[in-house]
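Submission checklist for the structure archive. All mandatory fields must be present; incomplete records are returned to the submitter.

[x] Identifier: Tripartite motif-containing protein 54
[x] Organism: Coregonus suidteri
[x] Residue count: 373
[x] Sequence attached
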Amino acid sequence: MDNLEKQLICPICLETFTKPVVILPCQHNLCRKCANDIFQASNPYLPTRGGSVTSGGRFRCPSCRHEVVLDRHGVYGLQRNLLVENIIDMFKQESTSSPRPAAPERTEEWAMCQEHENEKINIYCVTHSVPTCSMCKVFGAHKDCEVAPLKSIYQTQKTELTDGIAMMVGNNDRIQGIISQLEETCRTIEENGRRQKSQLCEKFDHLYAVLEEKKRDLSSKLAAKQEEKLNYIHGLTKKYKEHLELSSKAVETGIQTMEEPEMAVFLQTAKDLLKKIDEASSTSHLDKVERGYEAMDHYTINFSREGRALRNIDFISDDEDEYEEVDGGEAEGGAGVETQAGVGGGTATPAQLPSLPPQLSQPQSAAKLAAST
């Protein structure tokens, strides 16, 4: 019977279950009044009616800490455990009809007064807040004190202790909820940090791609201009070589004619030879390279302004607006590039960069001289 009685003890009021007894989803039992006390302590701001919460909420089982979620009926929506109620009725009937042998032992365990031998402690000194006996009140140290029946003080303090336990259970539930929220906040911060780092890397990769594209474009322009100049010089060199070859032949022919002993033969060839020598000695029909044509210094880029802008990249403050990304070539006079990154669910954008493409001076075309005869 003692083991059975232990199974019928409510974990809140520490007494035998008081009907109605409700069964929780975790299969533990509570007095409905105790369950309502825990529910109100865990949900202090929910509307009540007649001392009972009348809307949905949640609390934790005091035995296993399982979270119990209730609908709009509150604890009155929990199922009654009729089996436990019937066992309680049978236990009480059995206890009444056949007193247990252990009852005399309980009388021996009654607290006795230390000042008066064989006197039971049966009253409570309200003045000193200690239990005492009737002899202490009549003849002893508490004769001038205010006293009260021991049972009434017992019931009062037991009720206060029960309410305190229920309040602590509710506080523990709230603290557990705060801990859960903090853990969820940590996970959210970690996830937001990973997402913003990924976005930051994507923006910088895009900036690298823009710079690489512009590098290829400018390198292509520089290579094209270099090829143009080299082709022109190579062509001009070929023309001068051809003219030199004609001049060399004219000189060789002239030397051979000078060796002719016959005056008639000499005069027959001298006129045409003089004309060829005159043409060969003239280079007016050939282009001449302008001074500085070989220079390529005008294809120089100054990155000082862009470098300062890159070094000033930072996250935006809360009062700044988020910039829209502008692709290269869309902005007038160059492409503005910006990056943005956020932390903890916010967005951060560095200062907008100035135009990346440098201003290149156009090369001067080589002046070609008109051919003259």
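[x] Structure attached
Curator remark: The radius of gyration is 54 Å. The CA atoms of residues 263 and 270 lie 10 Å apart.
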